[in-house]
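Co-fold these.
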Amino acid sequence: MPNEAIYLWILTLTAFGLFGRRVSRYVRVLLAARPEKRWDRVGRRLRLVLVNVLGQRRLIEEPVVGVAHLVIFWSFVFFAASFFWNLVRGLLPFLPIPYADEVPWMSAALAVSGVAGLLALSVAAVRRYFFPPPRLEKSKDASIILGLIAVVLLSSLAGQWFRTSAPAVSRAMWWVHMVTVLGFLAYLPYSKHLHLLASPFGVFFASLQPGKLPEASSGAARREEFTWRQLFSGLACAECGRCDRSCPAFQSGSALSPKMLMHHMKELARGTAAGHTGAVFVGDVITREEIWACTSCLACMERCPVMNEHVPVLIEMRRHLIGEGDMDESLQQALKNLTRYGNSFGAAPRARPKWTQQLDFSIKDARKEPVHYLWFVGDYCSYDPRVAAATCAAARVFHKAGVDFGILYEGEHNSGNDVRLAGEEGLFESLRDKNRNSFARAHFNEIVTTDPHSFQALKHEYPPENGASSVLHHTQLLRQWIVNGDLPLRRKLHMKVTYHDPCYLGRYNAIFEAPRHVMAALGLTLVEMRRNRTYAYCCGAGGGRIWMEDPPVFKERPAVTRVREAAALEGVRTLVVVCPKDLVMFQDAIKTTGLEGRLEVKELSELVEQAMG
Amino acid sequence: MTGSICVLAEQWRGHMSEVTYETLALGREVADQLGIPLTAILTGSNARELARTLGAADSVLYVDHPLLAEPVPQPCAQALAQVMADRRPRALLVPLTNVSLGVSTLLSIRLGVAAVNFCKDLTVVDGQLRALCVMYGGKIEVTVEAGGEPAILGIWPGARPADKGRASRPASTIEQITVALEEPRVRLKKYIDPEAGDVDLSRQDVLVAVGRGIQSRDNLGLVEELAKTLGGAVAGSRPVIDQGWLPLSRQVGKSGLTVRPKLYIALGISGAPEHVEGMKDSGLIVAVNSDPRAPIFNIAHYGIVADVVETLPSLTAAIGAKRSVSHHA
Amino acid sequence: MHILVLLKMVPDVVEELEIAPGGKALDLEYLRMILSESDDHALEEALVLKERHDARITVLALDAPEVDDALFTALAKGADRAIKIVGMDAGLSTRQAARVFSQTIAHEPGILPVDLILTGVQAIDDLDGLIAPLVADDMGLPYLGIITRLDLDAPKHLALAVKEYPGAVRGEFEVNLPAVLGMQAAEKPPRYVPVAKVRATMKSRTVDCLPVPTLADGGWPAVQVVEMRRNEPAGHAEMLEGAPTQVSERLCGILAEHGLL
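Predicted complex below.
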């Protein structure tokens, strides 16, 4: 065998050896972690890969760098294929196949994609060094990689260019190219560009239902207590900062940065998490403030191009802290109230239906007589006096529409959604069981709720056999009734309004159009905020945060940011919401920002009632 | 003393507590209604001078012993039990304060009689003494027969105005009694005075006090605004201080300060006796509470049934507006 | 070091209290019982002392609705033994309850010796006395109440207790052990124990049941209730009604009238 081939073999074996060693260490760590089933529905998963890896869909949400990254990606894929071709040819010189660039169409393709790749690289470099978006991690790693890719492409182009005119240079370029790629391969699993290897798997093994909470566990504080998919998120992270840019907790100045969270998970997977001995992962590396700051709005997971799962990681850590009794006084009191009274207010269960006394008709008791719709009212809709007006409006709308509905009266308990997000699994199960007991003793066909948080729990966290053929949010029902002509609307409301997509209807359940249809039918002119639908900016109450003390906030609270965004819209004086927590948070924010009189918050039912005359 | 109404006078750190005069006033009423004398009994060490202020009673007993210098429940009870071993009054009224807590219970065991706690008033019906007591944080009122010789009754502060129990002349006869007390197994080492807070609540004309109904520490900002608009200071009931939302110097109530501002606004305070004790003599009391049955409405002059957090901003705005109008007028 | 904590269940005032027909007692139908708040603090203080001094904790309670929850929660929090006294009539007064406690402690084998007895300073239904001084005197032990800080000097058999006085004044006391102390507040708020842990404790631990001792009638005269009624506050305050802005306007007017603005 010629010397060149021998050198190539040595380099190849070394590079692959280093690569393999590192990767197999990661695999061992993942195998030692908790199991998680992600092999189901392979067809759906492959489609996700098609759209998000091959199509780079999420990256294109930021168009300039998205297209550039798409080009880099494809040229990289192409060059990788040609590299393996060349490697095989180089390692086995006796094979009767030409080098990749000796084939005319291949050579042309290499040239085109090389140039395109270099152009895209320049765009990316200019963005990174001159116009970086906030939270883009400007690590040395990234610069090294940009440089290496540039060398790979340039050397290939140069090799082709000089093939006939200066064969020695061309050959030298070939070696530069091969060595660079081999070096890149060896370096890859030690750098942030592990994401090149990991992210396609991350997308394949993505959660098919991003809002679904991790299976019951006692929480995680050490590496082996997380699931392999939760650790994997750290490995797949490219540190792009899209999560931070969309996170309301981060944007309002709290300690939580979803990107840093992923970074710490990467360190945990690598075994470099504790900088000094005695540092505990949950508490020291990741602080309590970070863990509790999350509002579970899912914006991070919605934007992440590699389908990382930030929220489940936080939930597992919360479960651990809850297990230790480690939480602030305010949350503790809410959990004690929920345990004892079934609501976070610490009010008597018997007081739950008191809001119905404001109505001039009585609502059927689903425990005593059969109804078609069981209206699961929810804690805030029942107990919070600020929401009472909206709840009564909804009741009157249902009543006027002639709908057969009833409520559970004292038989209803908090759905447990936010309890589960706060990490109190045992309490969630207890609340769920109590509700299911009430369901079992009542007679109904469908469940409707005015509370998106309850909607999420009833639909996804309760077993399907809760007696209902379906669980609906009231906006879905309203839309149905309007379409069927069952809701008599007497007048059009000629108002300019804007609408806030609640996290639990929007990102969690993709319910965007039903409320919009209803608003259109009411004659309202909807002026969208820039951040609408999956980009909607959370009010800050979710994830149990409404029960916790506010972290020391250096900038604006999320609800304040959001009402300012709404108030900035020309001609808009009404912010329409369909979630009681949004109602409460935005009303408060309007008061504290002095926007009273400039903007008011209305629940959709109140507007429907107005239109019904 | 036998067959009389007896009032345990409370002295603390060299001063006669106000509650003594309140209890004397009540005792005077009851004694007159029953047609029997009123006796005051004071424990202390070299405190005979203090005993002279008990002139509202018909007779005064002063029990002197070094171990009684500062009130400690067991020595006090032991001393009183000796005194009452052979002279049993009809009833003994004991103030329900932090200083005297426990004395009535201990004494009742040693004398083998019943004790009645939480009394806010005493009445005489058909020659029988009855006590009106508040239980369950002020939500329930119970009328009981105060039987036994003596009936030992724990009286809440504020049962009667203190002035009615102050005498114009000092007590004429003071009978001094010596007792034998065993080695104390509970010994007071020293008092710890509170650090001077930034604000002296007792000097404020306006206090805006918050209780559990404020829901979260984050709402304190709204409260402070209201207090500022009114030119007053923020105070709190026990739960709020225990949570750490306000410092100890702002606590109003049994273990905190007793205040008498011209205006006391109670926000989200239920009105349990322990708090009411500290503010009942305020000039004008306005209470805001979402529970229409909150006992605070018993003592307030004006009440608003509403959610505190809902009401605060309108209140502050309205007062602010009125103030600027009156300043310009 | 052995610490005994006495727990009492009291009516939960979050629920509306109703009077039973007869007008002399509470209606039990909607009544829920909850652990007396200062007893919860007594338990927390015991747990803190256990962590500091390597002590053993026994909790003792009289049978009542929902007492099992309180006892298992105490075990889940770290108590070593839980005892429930069963078989007595409902509606014992505080004095009778205290007697049951002291007789059980004194005569039931396996409880004594005890270095410290902690209980709440006062409960909302303590009409005829307080548990702590009653038990103390019955057992001939020293007593002090309204404690907010506690340190133990085990070798010297002393407790160093801080008692609350009016005006935010505190008093430092030395108490000979064994003693009975009435806790006002533990040095930290009562800890949280997750529901799952309480459930697991219910499966893995047991609560010892002891029969109520026959009480020699020590001439404990009971308090005769003439009448019990709900406190109807509407009688005193003039209520201002309406929307927040209306009410605020009216109140402003009232304050102005009083020369307070």
